[in-house]
Amino acid sequence: MTDADTSGRAVETFSNRGQWVTRVADEPEMSQSFSSRDEAVEAGERLAARLGTTHRVVESEPEGTITDQETTDAAAPRASRGGERELPDTTDDDGVPVENPSG
């Protein structure tokens, strides 16, 4: 085992809800998601080589389509990035753009 292996920077590729993810433990900014296993494995190998560490592929059965955590149609609608507050209209009743309210 190399020093890089013991530092916890090993690269791992695994299946997660229909996507393949390549990540470095404790470094979420280095995580990447892919729709195919082959793409994720190649990216994981390149990342491990760049970091000078190992790459481990966690084998699993395909899970089907890519999903998010909400799996039911009855799930509550997601809030906009502005929270519960509605954004101002950008057009008037005739479809003409209104003055930009944010300046």
Give a short synopsis of this structure.
The protein has 103 residues and is an alpha+beta fold.
Strand arrangement across the biggest beta sheet: 3-2-1-4
Order of helices and strands: HEEEHE
Radius of gyration based on Cα positions:
21 Å
* Major beta-sheet overview: 4 strands, mixed
Strand content: 15-25%
Q: Point out poorly predicted stretches.
A: 1-6, 70-83
Helix content: 10-25%
What does the model show?
It contains two helices and four strands. It has 103 residues and is an alpha+beta fold. Mean pLDDT is 74; it is low at 1-6 and 70-83. It has a domain at 3-57. The chain has a four-stranded mixed beta sheet, covered by helices on one side.
List keywords for this structure.
alpha+beta; single chain; 103 residues
Which SSEs are present, and which pair or pack?
Blueprint lengths: L2 H4 L4 E6 L2 E6 L7 E3 L2 H15 L3 E3 L46
Parallel strand pairs: 1-4
Antiparallel strand pairs: 1-2, 2-3
